[in-house]
Every structure is written in structure tokens, then in C-alpha cells.
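I have been asked to look over a protein record a colleague put together. The record follows directly below this note.
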Amino acid sequence: MTVLEAAPPAPLDYRADIVNDFALVAATVNGTGSQTANLAIIRALFQMGLPVTGKNLFPSNIQGLPTWYTIRVSEAGHTARREVTEILIAFNPNTWEEDVAALPPGGVCIYNADWRDFEERRNDITYYGIPVKEHVQASGADFALRDYVANMVYVGTLVSLFDIEYDEVYAAISRHFAGKAKPIALNMGVVDMAIAWAEENLEKRDPFRVERRNLTEGLMLIDGNTAGALGSLFGGLTFAAWYPITPATSFADGLIEWTPKLRRDAQGKETVAIVQAEDELAAIGMVVGAGWAGARAVTSTSGPGISLMSEFAGLAYFAEIPSVIWDIQRTGPSTGLPTRVSQGDILSAYTLSHGDTKHVVLFPGTMRECFDFGRAALDLAEQLQTLVLVLSDLDLGMNQWMTEPFDYPDKPLERGKVLDEAGLLSVIEESGRWGRYVDVDGDGVGYRTLPGIEHPLGAYFARGTGHDQWAVYSERPDVWQENIARIQRKHETARKLVPAPIVDEAPDATVAFISLGSADPAVREARTRLAAQGIPTSYLRVRALPFSADVRDFAERYERLYVVEMNSDGQLRDLLRQEYPEMAMRFRALNLLDGLPLTAKWIVDSFTEIEAAQ
């Protein structure tokens, strides 16, 4: 069984030509360099002005197991996973039977004609067999490189069959190899041979093709982990600690790649310290320590790492130390499916640690938000003096998405209530004493000093045990209750500071969707399909916890609210019910966890089935 069986064959309403509206999947073997070929294709299509998105489904081992890379071309601009994949590049001998079976009637299969056991069994799809070995041998590539350049055979075949522009493929491969003449010549040589062979030997027998448009002007392709790393750097990050884990490692890779380019002082010294820790506990411990010292500090991880960071998360919350965790969610529980997508960490992240803990959590849903929330998380952590978690996921974090360029920040960093010596002396002169946890402004947030302040009255003991407003150890029940009540006021303050939800209300709509994160493209496409059927729906995309007042206002306007999310329990739905118990029955779970990004078809079908049962 393969992951592609999640999209069962279905008859398609084909026209004479299907232009700029299909999906193709390259089914290859992990570790054979197919990503170079796939990125060349998606970048060439993007540079042709065509809206595209790429989704990589890869195994959790390093090499040898099946991998699938799906590129969706949608002139309408849809970027969710498509329910069917019309064009298959069958380059894995171990999965070709299942991969071909998943094609819809009218689909296309491009396969390696060197395979002796491959059979053209279906008569409702178009087959194109191409001699891969012949082209690879003719390339003159070293033996160690032959598996890699073999993938360029299907690149050339796609150029010939579907009118992908040659110059854009060349530009994409040149970019990938950073202008290095030898690898460019080797790979393009195979592309050229494949094009020439296809032009002479293949008769076009399918309706799919692409045409240049001008729909991506001013946009770029990027993955969410890189966007988040860039946002953190532009947001004043000064310290990062991390431990490798899929799918979060590329967030740290982004920091490592871009820090030398973006963050150097006048003497050329890098202004961000990045440390690979020995494990997740050490990473979060370093971040909490750096935050206490005044650094803007971040770590990145995924679900298993979040579990290990629980105790330090509680320390950051209770000792009120600014810290940020980027959680790139994957499918659990346990090791689960390390290279599949999920939104299963919502509840665990919100209440991470033990006891009465509720954190600020941000949910980016676009590349711009991944960038913007890099800065916002650091600002909020310092404004609220607390741990902030950013919950991205594998689909957002590791896949290629279109986005407008990011804006250079034009506002000062939000450092929050930090007292320098002059500020401390002013407080002491006015009230006679400074207290680290005194709630002067009624918002739950005290004024802090940073280590190294010269005045002795600016020192305090940061502790994770019971303490009063002066940071003095205490186990008195009344003191404990007062302290917890103050921290909870801080959480109420956060409601006014966190990013507001995105709301799109349709006239005459009586039902609505609520969602978050990378479920957004599928929800938006589903709404378009429902609107075409005469069913208007409204939509709210949650971008943060705690919920702002806008969420309540929206919910009060609709009797039926379908909460779309990628987990087995309906975690966002449960939080909404907990927050608004008087409206609990309005929130209905529309949740799925199969390790794959949601499709608009699943949402439409599920919604229609539930509505029909009303």
C-alpha cells in the first residue's frame, strides 16, 4: 500500500485540452536525488507565471524507501492538496503497480521502459515509456552520479509532452547548482537527450499542457521553516539552541544559512549565537537561560521534543522568562509518522508543563505569517514575560509555497517592561521598593531588570518554586493564590495583544467554518466549491491562543460552526467548547488525521454528509 492510495481513482470530466489545471506526482526512491529534478520542474512552472505548490511525501529513513513529490498547477490559484493526481512519473519499481492504480481514468503514466516487469494493464490511461538507461549511459556521468541524473530524463520528457518552457528549466537547474558549469552541463545534457528522444518517438495522446501566464509576478517560492527563521532574524533574535528532529531541523538550518548574510555588526562579527545542543532538554534550558539574561531566544522542535521540554516550559511560565519555541508539528503519538503532517500538538502546547499552565500559542497559516510571527513571537514573549509557542507543521514548514515578498520591519522591537538603572531608581524613589512580580499596571505583567544592572536593589532570585510579589520564597496559600491569579491576568492581557483571527463572512451564510494553520488552503477551496453549488459559508481562521474577542463575536452569529483540523480528537473544537460553554453544541468537529494534507473534496463531502443528516 502507498500513500497515494489515499486518492482513489475517480472519473474525470476531461475537455479537449486541460490547460494549467492538474497535478503531477514523481514517484521515486528516497536518496536518489529526485528533489533536484522536482524543484527544477516547480520553479520552471512558477517562472512561467503559473500558480503552483509542491508537496513532498518522503519516508523517515535516509535512503531506499518510496518518496512522492506532488506538484499542483492551478490557474485559479488553489494550493491545497488535490484529491486526484492526473500525471504519474513512475520511477520506483517497488510501487509502480499501486501508483498506477491510483491514477484516475484519463490520467497519464510516464514510466521507465527499462523495467521488464512493467505492464500497461489499464486501457483508460495514457502510457509513455521512456528508455532511462540509454540516456544515462549516453550522458557520460560517473557511476556514482547515474541514479541522480536519471531523474533528469523525466524532466526532459515533461518539457516535450506538456510544453514546459526549456529556458525556465535551464534557469532553474542553473540556480540549483549556483551557476557551476559542470553539473549544469551534465544535467541539462540529459534533459536535452530526453527532449530529443521524446520529440521523435512519443505521440502526444493526452489533454494536459501548460501555457505561460502572468499570475506569479511579484511572488516567490519559499518553505515555512525558512520564512520563520528569516522572521526571527529580522525580529531581533540573538540566541538559538536546537537539536535535530524532523520536520524542524530546516528551521535551524535557515538560521545558520542566513545569519552570516543578514546579522553582522560593523566589525563583521555575527550578532546571533546558534548552538546545537546535546538534546531537547538542553536546548530549551539554554533558551530559558538566555531569555532570563535578556536575549531574544528561540528553539525549534517537533512533538517528541515538546514533550521533553515540558519542565522547562513550566519554569519559563512561572518564573516569567521570555522564551520562544517553534513546534513544527508531525503525526504522533510516540514516534508516529515523523515525515507526515498533523495538528496534534494544540492541546499539549497550550498547557505544556504540569499544573495550571496556559501558554500563548501562535498559528501561522501562510508564508507571510511564518515570517511575521518570527518577530511577533519574540515581541510577545518579552511584552508578556512568558513562553510563546509557534505551531507550524510539516506541510507549512517543509513544502514549497508561493508568497509575496516579506516587508522589512518598520517598528522598534517590543522589549516590554525592562528597567534600566534610571528606571529602577525612579521606581524606588516613588514607592520605596521595587518588586519583580508587583502588578503595577493591573495587566499581570511586572517590571523586570536584567542581570548586570549595577544597582543592588535591582537584583532578584528567579525561581520556579512558590514566591511572592517580591520574588521571596513562600508556601503560604494566600500568596500562592494571589500569584496564580496575577499570572492569569497576564493571559487575559494576551487576548488583546495576539494576532486577531482572519474573518471572511459571506452574505446570507447560515453556517461557518473555523480552522487554523495549513488546513486553510483546503478550507478556502472547499468554500469556493460550495459557493458554486449555491451554499454560501463564512470562515474564521484562528491565529492565536488565547482566543481574542473576535472569536466569540463570530461564533455568536452562527448556529453551526464546523471546526476543520488535522488531528484525531478535534482539539481546536474542544478548546472552543471549553472557552465558550454556552455555545458548545454549535461547534462540530470536521477533523481528519491520515498523515496527509487535507483536500477540499474531503471537506465538501464531509460537510455535505453532516448537513444532509440535520
Observations:
- The domain at 222-403 is CATH 3.40.50.970 (Rossmann fold).
